[in-house]
Write a structure and sequence with these properties.
Strand content of chain A: 15-25%
CATH topology of chain A: thrh gene product, domain 2
Number of helices of chain A: 9
Oligomer: homodimer
Largest interface: A-B, 39 and 39 residues
Radius of gyration of chain A: 18 Å
CATH superfamily of chain A: thrh gene product, domain 2
Largest sheet of chain A: 7 strands, mixed
Order of helices and strands of chain A: EHHHHEHEEHEHEHEH
Structural class of chain A: alpha/beta
Distance between the termini of chain A: 19 Å
Helix content of chain A: 40-55%
Number of strands of chain A: 7
Protein backbone atom coordinates (compact mmCIF):
# COMPACT_ATOMS: atom_id res chain seq x y z
CA UNK A 1 0.00 0.00 0.00
CA UNK A 2 1.14 3.54 -0.64
CA UNK A 3 1.95 5.78 2.28
CA UNK A 4 -1.11 7.94 2.36
CA UNK A 5 -3.06 10.12 4.76
CA UNK A 6 -5.35 8.70 7.40
CA UNK A 7 -9.09 9.16 7.13
CA UNK A 8 -10.53 12.23 8.77
CA UNK A 9 -13.52 13.04 10.93
CA UNK A 10 -14.60 16.52 11.96
CA UNK A 11 -15.88 17.04 15.52
CA UNK A 12 -17.89 20.23 15.72
CA UNK A 13 -19.40 22.08 18.65
CA UNK A 14 -23.05 23.07 18.13
CA UNK A 15 -24.13 26.15 20.08
CA UNK A 16 -22.30 29.27 18.94
CA UNK A 17 -20.79 27.41 15.98
CA UNK A 18 -23.76 26.17 13.93
CA UNK A 19 -26.71 26.64 16.31
CA UNK A 20 -27.88 29.54 18.45
CA UNK A 21 -27.48 29.36 22.25
CA UNK A 22 -30.63 27.36 22.93
CA UNK A 23 -31.41 28.39 26.53
CA UNK A 24 -30.97 32.08 25.70
CA UNK A 25 -33.15 31.72 22.61
CA UNK A 26 -35.81 29.92 24.66
CA UNK A 27 -35.65 32.66 27.30
CA UNK A 28 -36.17 35.30 24.62
CA UNK A 29 -38.91 33.38 22.81
CA UNK A 30 -40.85 32.69 26.02
CA UNK A 31 -40.16 36.04 27.64
CA UNK A 32 -38.99 34.30 30.83
CA UNK A 33 -36.03 36.44 31.87
CA UNK A 34 -34.91 34.03 34.60
CA UNK A 35 -33.93 31.55 31.89
CA UNK A 36 -31.18 33.82 30.65
CA UNK A 37 -29.00 32.83 33.62
CA UNK A 38 -25.96 30.85 32.51
CA UNK A 39 -22.92 29.27 34.12
CA UNK A 40 -21.45 32.77 34.27
CA UNK A 41 -24.19 33.62 36.81
CA UNK A 42 -24.36 30.22 38.54
CA UNK A 43 -21.12 28.27 38.14
CA UNK A 44 -22.58 25.07 39.64
CA UNK A 45 -24.10 23.42 36.57
CA UNK A 46 -26.35 21.11 38.57
CA UNK A 47 -27.83 23.98 40.57
CA UNK A 48 -28.30 25.97 37.36
CA UNK A 49 -30.04 23.09 35.54
CA UNK A 50 -32.28 22.25 38.50
CA UNK A 51 -33.34 25.90 38.70
CA UNK A 52 -33.98 26.00 34.94
CA UNK A 53 -36.20 22.92 35.16
CA UNK A 54 -38.05 24.40 38.16
CA UNK A 55 -38.66 27.59 36.15
CA UNK A 56 -40.04 25.56 33.25
CA UNK A 57 -42.34 23.70 35.67
CA UNK A 58 -43.53 26.94 37.25
CA UNK A 59 -44.49 28.31 33.83
CA UNK A 60 -46.04 25.02 32.70
CA UNK A 61 -43.51 24.63 29.89
CA UNK A 62 -43.56 20.95 28.94
CA UNK A 63 -41.28 19.24 26.44
CA UNK A 64 -43.72 19.63 23.55
CA UNK A 65 -44.02 23.37 24.21
CA UNK A 66 -40.29 23.92 24.45
CA UNK A 67 -39.70 21.87 21.30
CA UNK A 68 -42.27 24.01 19.51
CA UNK A 69 -40.33 27.10 20.62
CA UNK A 70 -37.03 25.57 19.50
CA UNK A 71 -38.56 24.55 16.16
CA UNK A 72 -39.09 28.26 15.47
CA UNK A 73 -35.35 28.86 15.86
CA UNK A 74 -33.01 28.36 12.95
CA UNK A 75 -29.39 27.28 12.66
CA UNK A 76 -26.93 30.16 12.35
CA UNK A 77 -26.83 31.94 8.99
CA UNK A 78 -24.77 29.90 6.55
CA UNK A 79 -24.48 26.85 8.83
CA UNK A 80 -26.55 24.58 6.58
CA UNK A 81 -24.49 25.31 3.47
CA UNK A 82 -21.27 24.93 5.48
CA UNK A 83 -22.33 21.53 6.82
CA UNK A 84 -23.59 20.35 3.43
CA UNK A 85 -20.20 21.00 1.87
CA UNK A 86 -18.31 19.62 4.87
CA UNK A 87 -20.35 16.39 4.81
CA UNK A 88 -19.60 15.95 1.11
CA UNK A 89 -15.84 15.84 1.72
CA UNK A 90 -15.36 14.18 5.12
CA UNK A 91 -17.19 12.62 8.06
CA UNK A 92 -18.86 14.77 10.71
CA UNK A 93 -20.08 14.25 14.25
CA UNK A 94 -21.49 17.14 16.29
CA UNK A 95 -20.30 17.13 19.91
CA UNK A 96 -22.53 19.20 22.16
CA UNK A 97 -23.46 19.70 25.80
CA UNK A 98 -27.09 20.30 24.93
CA UNK A 99 -29.82 17.66 25.22
CA UNK A 100 -31.08 15.42 22.42
CA UNK A 101 -34.64 16.66 22.85
CA UNK A 102 -33.58 20.30 22.54
CA UNK A 103 -31.25 19.73 19.60
CA UNK A 104 -33.76 17.64 17.66
CA UNK A 105 -35.87 20.43 16.06
CA UNK A 106 -32.69 22.24 14.97
CA UNK A 107 -30.73 19.21 13.84
CA UNK A 108 -33.72 18.27 11.68
CA UNK A 109 -33.23 21.53 9.75
CA UNK A 110 -29.65 20.45 9.06
CA UNK A 111 -30.71 17.03 7.63
CA UNK A 112 -29.88 15.06 10.78
CA UNK A 113 -26.13 15.18 11.24
CA UNK A 114 -25.10 12.74 13.98
CA UNK A 115 -24.92 14.54 17.35
CA UNK A 116 -23.43 13.22 20.58
CA UNK A 117 -24.93 15.11 23.52
CA UNK A 118 -26.94 14.51 26.72
CA UNK A 119 -30.59 13.76 27.40
CA UNK A 120 -33.57 14.97 29.36
CA UNK A 121 -35.80 12.66 31.33
CA UNK A 122 -39.38 13.16 30.30
CA UNK A 123 -42.28 11.99 32.46
CA UNK A 124 -45.48 12.33 30.47
CA UNK A 125 -44.67 15.67 28.89
CA UNK A 126 -42.92 17.15 31.93
CA UNK A 127 -39.16 17.59 31.87
CA UNK A 128 -38.47 15.72 35.10
CA UNK A 129 -34.69 15.78 35.12
CA UNK A 130 -31.58 15.87 32.97
CA UNK A 131 -28.86 13.27 32.59
CA UNK A 132 -25.30 13.92 31.48
CA UNK A 133 -24.21 10.98 29.32
CA UNK A 134 -20.61 11.01 30.49
CA UNK A 135 -18.08 13.42 32.01
CA UNK A 136 -15.79 15.32 29.61
CA UNK A 137 -17.80 13.95 26.67
CA UNK A 138 -16.19 15.93 23.87
CA UNK A 139 -12.60 14.99 24.65
CA UNK A 140 -13.61 11.36 25.16
CA UNK A 141 -15.38 11.28 21.79
CA UNK A 142 -12.27 12.66 20.07
CA UNK A 143 -10.14 9.98 21.76
CA UNK A 144 -12.65 7.30 20.70
CA UNK A 145 -12.48 8.42 17.06
CA UNK A 146 -8.68 8.40 17.22
CA UNK A 147 -8.79 4.86 18.62
CA UNK A 148 -10.65 3.93 15.41
CA UNK A 149 -7.71 5.33 13.43
CA UNK A 150 -9.31 8.61 12.44
CA UNK A 151 -7.48 11.90 12.25
CA UNK A 152 -9.73 14.29 14.16
CA UNK A 153 -10.22 17.94 13.25
CA UNK A 154 -12.25 19.77 15.91
CA UNK A 155 -13.76 23.25 16.08
CA UNK A 156 -15.54 25.06 18.89
CA UNK A 157 -16.03 28.42 20.57
CA UNK A 158 -16.04 27.90 24.33
CA UNK A 159 -14.12 26.73 27.35
CA UNK A 160 -16.06 23.46 27.30
CA UNK A 161 -14.59 22.82 23.84
CA UNK A 162 -10.96 23.29 24.74
CA UNK A 163 -10.25 19.77 26.02
CA UNK A 164 -11.66 18.51 22.70
CA UNK A 165 -9.61 21.01 20.71
CA UNK A 166 -6.42 20.07 22.56
CA UNK A 167 -7.06 16.32 22.17
CA UNK A 168 -7.82 16.59 18.44
CA UNK A 169 -5.08 16.21 15.83
CA UNK A 170 -6.03 19.73 14.73
CA UNK A 171 -8.10 22.15 16.81
CA UNK A 172 -9.70 25.40 15.66
CA UNK A 173 -11.49 28.13 17.57
CA UNK A 174 -14.54 29.53 15.79
CA UNK A 175 -16.11 32.84 16.83
CA UNK A 176 -14.64 32.44 20.30
CA UNK A 177 -14.88 35.26 22.85
CA UNK A 178 -11.73 37.34 23.33
CA UNK A 179 -10.75 35.72 26.63
CA UNK A 180 -10.85 32.22 25.14
CA UNK A 181 -8.86 33.41 22.12
CA UNK A 182 -6.25 34.92 24.42
CA UNK A 183 -5.95 31.91 26.70
CA UNK A 184 -5.72 29.50 23.74
CA UNK A 185 -3.81 31.72 21.35
CA UNK A 186 -1.95 28.70 19.93
CA UNK A 187 -5.24 27.56 18.34
CA UNK A 188 -6.06 29.15 14.98
CA UNK A 189 -9.20 31.27 15.19
CA UNK A 190 -11.74 31.80 12.40
CA UNK A 191 -14.80 33.99 12.14
CA UNK A 192 -16.31 32.81 8.85
CA UNK A 193 -17.48 29.40 7.64
CA UNK A 194 -15.48 29.81 4.43
CA UNK A 195 -12.25 30.35 6.37
CA UNK A 196 -13.01 27.42 8.69
CA UNK A 197 -13.84 25.21 5.72
CA UNK A 198 -10.59 26.16 3.98
CA UNK A 199 -8.60 25.36 7.12
CA UNK A 200 -10.35 21.99 7.44
CA UNK A 201 -9.68 21.18 3.76
CA UNK A 202 -5.99 21.89 4.26
CA UNK A 203 -5.91 19.24 6.98
CA UNK A 204 -7.81 16.50 5.15
CA UNK B 1 -31.57 12.09 38.85
CA UNK B 2 -34.17 9.51 38.00
CA UNK B 3 -33.08 6.05 36.97
CA UNK B 4 -33.65 6.23 33.27
CA UNK B 5 -32.49 4.56 30.10
CA UNK B 6 -29.13 5.27 28.56
CA UNK B 7 -28.88 7.12 25.28
CA UNK B 8 -28.89 5.02 22.14
CA UNK B 9 -26.98 4.91 18.90
CA UNK B 10 -27.77 2.67 15.95
CA UNK B 11 -24.88 1.08 14.03
CA UNK B 12 -26.03 -0.01 10.61
CA UNK B 13 -24.32 -1.99 7.89
CA UNK B 14 -24.59 -0.42 4.43
CA UNK B 15 -24.42 -2.90 1.54
CA UNK B 16 -27.38 -5.28 1.55
CA UNK B 17 -29.10 -3.28 4.29
CA UNK B 18 -29.57 0.23 2.85
CA UNK B 19 -27.30 0.21 -0.23
CA UNK B 20 -26.86 -2.21 -3.12
CA UNK B 21 -23.70 -4.37 -3.30
CA UNK B 22 -21.48 -1.75 -4.91
CA UNK B 23 -18.92 -3.98 -6.70
CA UNK B 24 -21.66 -6.14 -8.20
CA UNK B 25 -23.60 -3.08 -9.30
CA UNK B 26 -20.45 -1.61 -10.85
CA UNK B 27 -19.76 -4.91 -12.63
CA UNK B 28 -23.27 -4.89 -14.06
CA UNK B 29 -23.20 -1.20 -14.99
CA UNK B 30 -19.82 -1.46 -16.72
CA UNK B 31 -20.42 -4.89 -18.23
CA UNK B 32 -17.09 -6.13 -16.83
CA UNK B 33 -17.94 -9.65 -15.73
CA UNK B 34 -14.63 -10.18 -13.91
CA UNK B 35 -15.72 -7.60 -11.34
CA UNK B 36 -18.48 -9.89 -10.11
CA UNK B 37 -15.94 -12.01 -8.23
CA UNK B 38 -16.37 -11.74 -4.48
CA UNK B 39 -14.78 -13.19 -1.36
CA UNK B 40 -16.79 -16.33 -2.07
CA UNK B 41 -14.63 -16.82 -5.20
CA UNK B 42 -11.37 -15.45 -3.77
CA UNK B 43 -11.28 -15.70 0.02
CA UNK B 44 -8.07 -13.65 0.32
CA UNK B 45 -9.42 -10.10 0.44
CA UNK B 46 -6.10 -8.49 -0.48
CA UNK B 47 -5.69 -10.67 -3.58
CA UNK B 48 -9.32 -9.96 -4.52
CA UNK B 49 -8.95 -6.19 -4.13
CA UNK B 50 -5.63 -6.06 -5.99
CA UNK B 51 -7.20 -7.97 -8.88
CA UNK B 52 -10.24 -5.65 -8.86
CA UNK B 53 -7.99 -2.60 -9.06
CA UNK B 54 -5.95 -4.21 -11.86
CA UNK B 55 -9.19 -4.86 -13.78
CA UNK B 56 -10.22 -1.23 -13.35
CA UNK B 57 -6.79 -0.13 -14.61
CA UNK B 58 -7.00 -2.45 -17.60
CA UNK B 59 -10.35 -0.97 -18.60
CA UNK B 60 -9.24 2.61 -17.91
CA UNK B 61 -11.83 3.04 -15.18
CA UNK B 62 -10.64 5.97 -13.09
CA UNK B 63 -12.21 7.25 -9.87
CA UNK B 64 -14.33 9.87 -11.63
CA UNK B 65 -15.74 7.24 -14.01
CA UNK B 66 -16.55 4.77 -11.26
CA UNK B 67 -18.16 7.51 -9.17
CA UNK B 68 -20.28 8.46 -12.16
CA UNK B 69 -21.39 4.82 -12.40
CA UNK B 70 -22.14 4.67 -8.67
CA UNK B 71 -24.05 7.95 -8.84
CA UNK B 72 -26.50 6.20 -11.19
CA UNK B 73 -27.21 3.62 -8.49
CA UNK B 74 -29.80 4.28 -5.82
CA UNK B 75 -30.15 3.19 -2.20
CA UNK B 76 -32.41 0.18 -1.68
CA UNK B 77 -36.15 0.80 -2.02
CA UNK B 78 -37.45 2.35 1.18
CA UNK B 79 -34.01 2.93 2.69
CA UNK B 80 -34.24 6.73 2.59
CA UNK B 81 -37.60 6.83 4.39
CA UNK B 82 -36.35 4.27 6.93
CA UNK B 83 -33.22 6.33 7.69
CA UNK B 84 -35.14 9.60 7.83
CA UNK B 85 -37.42 8.21 10.53
CA UNK B 86 -34.56 6.49 12.35
CA UNK B 87 -32.50 9.69 12.44
CA UNK B 88 -35.47 11.58 13.89
CA UNK B 89 -35.62 9.32 16.94
CA UNK B 90 -32.01 8.31 17.70
CA UNK B 91 -28.41 8.70 16.55
CA UNK B 92 -27.07 6.75 13.59
CA UNK B 93 -23.63 5.81 12.28
CA UNK B 94 -23.23 3.60 9.23
CA UNK B 95 -20.47 1.01 9.64
CA UNK B 96 -19.30 -0.37 6.32
CA UNK B 97 -16.38 -2.18 4.70
CA UNK B 98 -16.74 -0.15 1.53
CA UNK B 99 -14.56 2.85 0.65
CA UNK B 100 -15.43 6.50 1.27
CA UNK B 101 -15.05 7.35 -2.41
CA UNK B 102 -17.48 4.59 -3.46
CA UNK B 103 -20.02 5.32 -0.74
CA UNK B 104 -20.05 9.06 -1.39
CA UNK B 105 -22.45 9.25 -4.37
CA UNK B 106 -24.92 6.96 -2.55
CA UNK B 107 -24.61 8.50 0.89
CA UNK B 108 -25.32 11.86 -0.73
CA UNK B 109 -28.74 10.55 -1.78
CA UNK B 110 -29.42 9.71 1.88
CA UNK B 111 -28.56 13.28 3.09
CA UNK B 112 -25.08 12.40 4.33
CA UNK B 113 -25.47 10.08 7.29
CA UNK B 114 -22.11 9.62 9.02
CA UNK B 115 -20.32 6.55 7.64
CA UNK B 116 -17.24 4.84 9.08
CA UNK B 117 -15.53 2.83 6.34
CA UNK B 118 -12.20 2.54 4.49
CA UNK B 119 -10.56 4.60 1.78
CA UNK B 120 -9.01 4.32 -1.65
CA UNK B 121 -5.73 5.94 -2.56
CA UNK B 122 -6.16 8.08 -5.61
CA UNK B 123 -3.19 9.20 -7.73
CA UNK B 124 -4.41 11.76 -10.22
CA UNK B 125 -7.65 10.02 -11.12
CA UNK B 126 -6.27 6.49 -10.96
CA UNK B 127 -7.27 4.24 -8.09
CA UNK B 128 -3.75 3.30 -7.02
CA UNK B 129 -4.49 1.27 -3.93
CA UNK B 130 -6.89 0.72 -1.07
CA UNK B 131 -6.35 1.18 2.64
CA UNK B 132 -8.28 -0.54 5.41
CA UNK B 133 -8.69 1.96 8.24
CA UNK B 134 -8.41 -0.62 11.01
CA UNK B 135 -8.95 -4.34 11.54
CA UNK B 136 -12.37 -5.50 12.78
CA UNK B 137 -13.69 -1.93 12.32
CA UNK B 138 -17.35 -2.57 13.04
CA UNK B 139 -16.88 -4.30 16.38
CA UNK B 140 -14.34 -1.67 17.45
CA UNK B 141 -16.74 1.16 16.57
CA UNK B 142 -19.47 -0.47 18.65
CA UNK B 143 -17.06 -0.78 21.60
CA UNK B 144 -16.03 2.87 21.16
CA UNK B 145 -19.67 4.02 21.28
CA UNK B 146 -20.24 1.92 24.40
CA UNK B 147 -17.17 3.52 25.99
CA UNK B 148 -18.97 6.86 25.48
CA UNK B 149 -21.91 5.44 27.48
CA UNK B 150 -24.16 4.72 24.54
CA UNK B 151 -26.42 1.70 24.28
CA UNK B 152 -25.70 0.33 20.82
CA UNK B 153 -28.29 -1.29 18.57
CA UNK B 154 -26.71 -2.85 15.48
CA UNK B 155 -28.13 -4.38 12.33
CA UNK B 156 -26.43 -6.12 9.40
CA UNK B 157 -26.77 -8.96 6.93
CA UNK B 158 -23.37 -10.66 6.58
CA UNK B 159 -20.63 -12.56 8.32
CA UNK B 160 -18.57 -9.38 8.50
CA UNK B 161 -21.35 -7.86 10.62
CA UNK B 162 -21.55 -10.61 13.20
CA UNK B 163 -18.76 -9.40 15.50
CA UNK B 164 -20.54 -6.03 15.56
CA UNK B 165 -23.91 -7.65 16.22
CA UNK B 166 -22.50 -9.75 19.06
CA UNK B 167 -20.69 -6.77 20.62
CA UNK B 168 -23.76 -4.51 20.47
CA UNK B 169 -26.23 -4.30 23.34
CA UNK B 170 -28.83 -5.49 20.83
CA UNK B 171 -28.02 -7.07 17.46
CA UNK B 172 -30.39 -7.72 14.57
CA UNK B 173 -29.94 -9.57 11.30
CA UNK B 174 -31.57 -7.90 8.32
CA UNK B 175 -32.19 -9.77 5.05
CA UNK B 176 -29.39 -12.19 5.92
CA UNK B 177 -28.74 -15.26 3.78
CA UNK B 178 -30.04 -18.55 5.18
CA UNK B 179 -26.65 -19.82 6.33
CA UNK B 180 -26.00 -16.66 8.39
CA UNK B 181 -29.49 -16.86 9.88
CA UNK B 182 -28.90 -20.49 10.85
CA UNK B 183 -25.47 -19.93 12.35
CA UNK B 184 -26.67 -16.89 14.32
CA UNK B 185 -30.18 -18.04 15.08
CA UNK B 186 -30.10 -16.31 18.48
CA UNK B 187 -30.17 -12.96 16.64
CA UNK B 188 -33.64 -11.74 15.65
CA UNK B 189 -34.00 -11.54 11.86
CA UNK B 190 -36.10 -9.03 9.93
CA UNK B 191 -36.91 -8.67 6.27
CA UNK B 192 -38.70 -5.31 6.20
CA UNK B 193 -37.67 -1.81 7.28
CA UNK B 194 -40.91 -1.41 9.23
CA UNK B 195 -40.21 -4.54 11.28
CA UNK B 196 -36.59 -3.49 11.87
CA UNK B 197 -37.70 0.01 12.87
CA UNK B 198 -40.27 -1.41 15.31
CA UNK B 199 -37.62 -3.65 16.87
CA UNK B 200 -35.23 -0.70 17.20
CA UNK B 201 -37.93 1.47 18.79
CA UNK B 202 -38.61 -1.24 21.38
CA UNK B 203 -34.97 -1.03 22.44
CA UNK B 204 -34.62 2.74 22.67
Amino acid sequence: MTDNKKQTIVALDAEGVILPEIWIAVAEATGIAELTRTTRDEPDYDILMKSRLAILDKHGITIDKIQAVIAELTPLDGAKAFLDELRSITQLVILSDTFEQFAQPLVKQLDWPTIFCHQLHIEGKRIADYQLRIADPKRKAVKAFQSLNYTVIAAGDSYNDTTMLEAADTGFLFRAPANVQQEFEHLPHYESYSDLLSAIKENI
